[in-house]
Amino acid sequence: MPFREFLEKFREENRTYHYYYSFEDPPGVLKEDVELPGLMDDLFEISIVTYWHGYGTLTKPHTDSMENMMCVYEGYKNFTIVPQYDREYIYAGWNGLPDNYSPVEFVWPDYQKWPLFEHARVKTVHIEPGDCLFLPSYYWH
Prior knowledge:
This protein has about 140 residues and is α+β, with helices and mostly antiparallel strands.
């Protein structure tokens, strides 16, 4: 999908899909404008910068095998996170999903369907422009 068409999708009223765009590097001239927080250079060996652009996105809860530093440049982002130690409560890999995905909707969980999830230590984090959230590897988000 061309980027122009992607941006037009956000204007659709009553849309039923969440759209987001991912690049391994920020696109075009935007790459020159992105400055990583100094903390990142001081603490991490950065091997990849992934640029995500979206509005109203909600992805299936999953883990990543690498640390993540989520930074907001415009707008805001809410994260619902669960520590990797609570894996037994989130039904990882259930019914054929990959082992690093959960079928439970962390934001609005159905406790009737997923009763063990009530034991998970769920945290919600709201970040705004200039904020960054460090997410250790294997944290559910």
